[in-house]
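queue> holo job accepted (iron/sulfur cluster)
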Amino acid sequence: MANYREMWEQLGMDLENHDNLCAVLPTAFGDVYLSQENRPESMDFWDMVVADIHGIRPAELIEEQKKGRKVFGTFCVYVPDEVVIAADGIVTGLCGGSQFWVPDGEAVLPKSTCPLIKASVGARLGKTCPFFRIADMYVGETTCDGKKKAWEILGKDVPMYVMDMPQMKRAKDVTKWMEEVEDFAAVVEKTTGKTITPEKLAESIHIINEKRKALARVYETRKADVIPISGKDALLMMQIAFFDDPERCAQMANRLADELEQRVKDGVSVFPAGTKRILVTGTPMAIPNWKLHHIIETSGGAVVCEETCTGTRYFENLVDETGTTLEEQYRAIAERYMGIHCACFTPNTERVDDILRLAKEYKVDGVIDVNLKFCCLYDTEGYVVEKALKEAGIPVLGIETDYTDADAEQLRTRIEAFIEMLG
Ligand code: SF4
Ligand code: SF4
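queue> job finished
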């Protein structure tokens, strides 16, 4: 990593503890990523980003703040980036994906909270993540109980705005979400001091749609018989997408898609012929949570798709760009976001439909349904997901895990047996 100590110090970070994190990350990345063979050359961009993950982008954000722009930290794919960008704000993802942050989260949260929430709270309170220090405002949502209560704790330490998610998807719920988006827009305008106009919103809707299309292009290549990119690399692209500038994200994803499309034409695969194709579904995998993908792809499988918030839920479906008034545009935003199928909704049959559709489109041999420990929502929904898959004749393995390595060998044994069974 380049030397960003002065910047971290000015951000009020715990430098000593942060050094411990910086010491392990390169080794973890090297073991999981750089050990792969025949990676697409375009992954050099994401390798560079990870190599300086607490330096390059945070420094960019600070430069923008000096020009008067505000940074909004978000934790969920339901928070509409379009609104923030239309007011000249910047969005950065804040979900924590490392065990490193969990103990600081456990200092204030019950142990029986999902690791994603514990890591997110710990990253702030432990002062070991620059993104959590930089954000001018956090934007939470009332998706799950753990998050709802965590916002109250984080809200004592940093300005926090919470969007109230409906729990169902009836027409009146979509309207309610539209009102919630409008309320959020008013808060963003107040924070940035900028007015959202239909022209600005049309522009930001287009920017985020282009980003979605670029990410979707990369995923499209994973449907081919030859697998041009590992699941691990695709996951890394998705994880960084939450932090990066959206236009650069689209540019880099399109560059990668160009290379992958050529690989498909040339019959270049990163896995030997016959490698079992796996769809991963379930809870999100925030950076640097690469655990499951790494185990699958070193156990004879290839992850070809993720039906998660760090996968298809992030980019599928576009916001309608034909609206010309703010009302039409907010409605279009609300409708697109309510088309994301998180387990926090009831009923949530559309998610099951998505999984069955994706299993077919990506020609998968089996599905791994992953649940982060203590996530009651996805754990419970696992019953209907796994039942539907079995009924459709698609082999499925349900697993529960966290960010530690304690269960890695046990998981490997189960996943190896599952993949062998597919053969
Ligand atoms: S799983 Fe649900 S709560 Fe978590 S990021 Fe996705 S949509 Fe938001
Ligand atoms: S994984 Fe589950 S418990 Fe954790 S934040 Fe997401 S919805 Fe909430």
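queue> Residues 323 and 361 are 31 Å apart (CA to CA).
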